[in-house]
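Private note to self, pasted from the team thread so I don't lose it. Backbone tokens:
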């Protein structure tokens, strides 16, 4: 074994591809064989038969470092051990030198002692090790539980800095550079439940213990020459703005005046006698040129005077427009800029259409009025504006935005203008004000005023205004409404045309949806756990309802939801109990015995002989927050029973939430250390729009509980981004479910859900898929309903599978999904969203696995995804979910036999004939639930292809 110097170490790394490693010291000894096999196979994959081209650099702490170093040496990879010398770092001794001397195979090892930097003498050896790994590694292997410990130099910091690794330098061209992170999810003695929270921006995948997460990080080398040139232009742009700011209003007039005076004096004085009197005359002559007095010459003058009088005229024009700007005010000026943008783009569109006509080709217009309208100016609107103006790619400049501002004195006005928005003052509920925004021509419209009632009135006003616009084709209107009653009022008040364009969203509901669906990885089934919610504002309420909707319909033990509410939320708690009395088994029962039986089966039916009193338990928030984790308190009692806990701190202010969590985390950390097999997760609602501040706080919170994941959520920059509002990933699944139901049960019927656009595209696709034709078009003789439905199911499965490989079918599927979705009411859309959300609960409950792939999977994989027994059980689960959704939205069972005659009337009264237990459903309705379960693997595959461009392979 040879020790190398710093110079030899750098030379060695330059000549080889570097594999870095970091990991835990307390891996589970009983799983060593599994870990060794996983590490060996991953190293073989990386070196691809050429171990001599690679070098592994790693610390030499016990267990993880030792395992990787030994496996690399066995494969013939050169290994450099970065050792901590106790003489250099006396307080950090971990026996590196002694263990290194005991290595049996010494030929493939070098040692390099970590040395403190002269400029940073207070650095720990772990921080030095982290810098070396991040700086030199092309591949980084981590044996890690995925939890941010907050420890400087820890594996979490290695991973975080590696993922944000700065681009290398280049001189004359840009080249693509790729780094690869290989993370093995490894339990440890102090935490046997790994976490995937670091990869929540990746596709939702079912991860597992001792599974690899491989992420390729692509960056480009920095071109030093071009960067210098760009920095000069940025400096000039900052010092002399080329917009309507300092340059146009102050510097340009000053430059023009100076040029006129200098050129005028030089030109006039050069034609006269060289006396002091003529010099003075030249000055006054030049001043006359500024005011245009005496700018008409009888005698010829030289070029300096000619240029001076032209610049004098230019100065007059500039001053006129500056005066006009100040006289008209900023709003009129920005309205003029908005008008200029629309007029210029319309002109370019006419030119594009003319070229298309004269060339006898259907050219796609490249110039359009691509702007968005934001109604209202508050924190929500400002975050939406920033997201719209932020270029999503290097080729785009962001979307132009016009904002209708109801409060001219708002401090956000100047900030919005600095973002490049056109600000127009007006009243959101006034048609006169709305006309100024030309919302009917906008590509997107966001209605986010400070009042939900004002939002509703604004949309109703817009609906009335577009009723006379025949060519209105906008499909992307978004309105923020959280009140369920206002949602219902809006749906019943707007026209079908506006309903086609409108999406109602709720910040609280969207956030709760992502929190429940976005954290299933590595956690096992989420159905048997205790959920603790601190705070009962809009978000706390949404988390409670979403927990009920997601987690109570299964064969597993029922979860328990505990809410600790502050005194300010006491009225909201009482109102909730009155609004949903059936969630509380100990409350008085209604006189409607049919409804009571339905709610008993839905919320309290026997599930593994587990029956509880109330679905939710409310407790006042203690004045001393640490009492929440008192050993005799309800939280600890529930945790000891379920051994799984999700703790949400979601008070009204992010600082309040962080304060509560700071008080509770030490108690939870103690419990975790005493019970490493407990699955504990904590989440802090931190709604301040500062991403760096959120990351900083998250690190500090994780440092208080380094053996359980702590995650901040709800940042308004994220929650009010276009991506979050549109919720494309979740809605893509919901749109598939909607189309699946439509094609099975409404296609070809003249029902209220009929969509001619869907049927046109379906007619194009049916000829390409023989199974689809057998189910829908080739039946000359009438078949029994069950046989016909079976053929349709097989045809739809083939349609979904064909879309994975045929671009024409994929395009047709996308159009059918879009038209079908737009034809639904907002109530039906929400129902499909909830079905899509619960999809993840179903696949997680039965531990279904799939991985991203570059190859199209075999159809047998989809057919074998579920067993027959699983389909039957989950069909019952799906009906429970549907029942709960309906009951929570105020629906009741119908009493009577005239459902078909007065179906729409009963629906308007929120009465339904299928609010029954599963065994009481008609057989054909039971089959609907089974068929949806059968479609789940196809839905997941198409969603991954559409959203991420990746196929999946079922395991």
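Design output:
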């Amino acid at each position: 074994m040879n020790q190398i110097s710093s110079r030899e170490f750098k030379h060695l790394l330059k000549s080889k591809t570097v594999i870095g490693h970091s990991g835990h010291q307390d891996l589970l000894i009983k799983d060593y064989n599994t870990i060794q096999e996983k590490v060996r196979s991953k190293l073989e994959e990386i070196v691809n038969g050429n171990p001599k081209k690679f070098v592994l650099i790693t610390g030499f702490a016990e267990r993880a470092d030792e395992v990787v170093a030994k496996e690399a040496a066995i494969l013939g990879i050169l290994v450099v051990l970065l050792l901590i010398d106790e003489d250099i770092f006396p307080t950090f001794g971990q026996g590196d030198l002694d263990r290194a001397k005991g290595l049996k195979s010494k030929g493939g090892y070098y040692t390099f002692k970590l040395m403190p930097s002269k400029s940073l003498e207070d650095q720990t050896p772990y921080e030095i090790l982290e810098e070396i790994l991040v700086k030199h590694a092309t591949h980084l292997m981590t044996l890690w539980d995925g939890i941010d410990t907050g420890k400087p130099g820890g594996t979490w910091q290695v991973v975080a800095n590696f993922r944000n690794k700065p681009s290398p330098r280049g001189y004359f061209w840009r080249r693509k550079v790729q780094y690869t992170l290989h993370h093995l999810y490894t339990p440890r003695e102090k935490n046997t439940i790994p976490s995937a929270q670091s990869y929540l921006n990746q596709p939702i995948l079912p991860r597992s213990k001792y599974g690899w997460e491989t992420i390729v990080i692509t960056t480009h080398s920095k071109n030093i020459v071009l960067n210098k040139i760009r920095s000069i232009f940025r400096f000039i742009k900052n010092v002399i703005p080329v917009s309507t700011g300092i340059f146009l209003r102050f510097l340009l007039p000053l430059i023009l005046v100076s040029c006129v005076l200098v050129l005028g004096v030089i030109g006039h004085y050069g034609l006269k006698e060289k006396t002091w009197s003529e010099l003075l005359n030249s000055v006054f002559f030049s001043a006359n040129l500024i005011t245009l007095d005496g700018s008409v010459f009888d005698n010829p003058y030289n070029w300096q005077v000619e240029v001076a009088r032209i610049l004098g005229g230019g100065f007059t024009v500039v001053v006129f427009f500056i005066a006009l700007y100040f006289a008209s005010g900023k709003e009129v000026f920005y309205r003029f800029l908005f008008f200029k943008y629309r007029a210029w783009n319309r002109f370019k569109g006419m030119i594009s259409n003319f070229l298309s006509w004269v060339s006898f080709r259907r050219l796609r217009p490249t110039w359009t009025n691509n702007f968005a309208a934001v109604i209202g100016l508050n924190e929500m609107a400002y975050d939406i504006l920033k997201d719209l103006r932020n270029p999503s790619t290097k080729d785009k400049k962001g979307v132009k935005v016009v904002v209708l501002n109801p409060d001219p004195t708002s401090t956000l006005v100047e900030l919005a203008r600095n973002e490049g928005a056109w600000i127009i003052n007006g009243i959101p509920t006034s048609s006169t004000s709305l006309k100024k925004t030309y919302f009917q021509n906008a590509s997107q419209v966001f209605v986010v005023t400070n009042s939900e009632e004002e939002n509703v009135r604004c949309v109703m006003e817009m609906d009335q205004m577009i009723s006379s616009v025949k060519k209105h084709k906008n499909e992307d209107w978004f309105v923020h409404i959280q009140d369920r009653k206002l949602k219902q009022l809006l749906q019943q008040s707007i026209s079908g045309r506006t309903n086609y364009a409108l999406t109602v969203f709720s910040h609280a509901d969207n956030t709760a949806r992502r929190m429940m669906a976005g954290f299933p990885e590595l956690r096992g089934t989420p159905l048997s756990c205790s959920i603790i919610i601190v705070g009962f504002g809009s978000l706390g309420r949404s988390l409670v309802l979403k927990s009920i909707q997601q987690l109570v319909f299964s064969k597993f033990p029922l979860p328990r939801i505990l809410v600790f509410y502050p005194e300010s939320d006491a009225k909201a708690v009482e109102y909730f109990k009155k609004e949903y009395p059936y969630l509380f088994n100990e409350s008085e029962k209604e006189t409607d015995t049919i409804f009571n039986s339905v709610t008993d089966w839905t919320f309290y039916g026997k599930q593994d002989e587990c029956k509880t009193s109330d679905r939710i338990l409310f407790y006042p928030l203690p004045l001393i927050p640490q009492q929440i984790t008192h050993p005799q308190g309800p939280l600890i009692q529930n945790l000891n029973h379920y051994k799984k806990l999700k703790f949400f701190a979601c008070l009204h202010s992010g600082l309040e939430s962080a304060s509560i969590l700071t008080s509770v985390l030490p108690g939870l950390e103690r419990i975790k250390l005493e019970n490493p097999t407990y699955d504990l997760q904590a989440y802090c609602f931190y709604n301040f729009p500062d991403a760096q501040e959120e990351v900083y706080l998250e690190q500090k919170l994780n440092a208080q509980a380094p053996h359980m994941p702590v995650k901040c959520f709800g940042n308004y920059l994220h929650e009010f981004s276009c991506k979050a509002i549109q919720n494309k990933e979740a809605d893509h699944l919901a749109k598939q479910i909607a189309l699946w139901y439509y094609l099975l049960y409404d296609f070809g019927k003249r029902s209220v859900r009929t969509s001619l656009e869907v049927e046109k595209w379906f007619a194009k696709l049916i000829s390409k898929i023989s199974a689809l034709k057998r189910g829908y078009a080739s039946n000359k003789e009438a078949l029994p309903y069950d046989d016909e439905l079976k053929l349709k199911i097989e045809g739809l499965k083939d349609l979904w599978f064909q879309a994975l490989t045929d671009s024409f079918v994929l395009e047709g599927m996308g159009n059918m999904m879009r038209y079908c979705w737009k034809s639904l009411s907002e109530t039906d859309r929400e129902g499909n969203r909830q079905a899509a959300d619960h999809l993840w609960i179903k696949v997680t409950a039965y531990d279904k696995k799939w991985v991203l792939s570059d190859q199209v999977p075999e159809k047998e994989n989809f057919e074998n995804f579920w067993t027959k027994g699983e389909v039957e059980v989950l069909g019952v689960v799906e009906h429970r979910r549907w029942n709960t959704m309906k009951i929570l939205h105020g629906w009741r069972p119908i009493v009577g036999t005239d459902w078909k005659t007065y179906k729409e009337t009963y629906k308007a009264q929120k009465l339904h004939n299928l609010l029954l237990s599963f065994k009481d459903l008609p057989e054909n309705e039971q089959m609907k639930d089974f068929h949806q379960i059968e479609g789940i693997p196809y839905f997941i595959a198409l969603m991954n292809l559409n959203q991420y461009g990746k196929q999946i392979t079922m395991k």
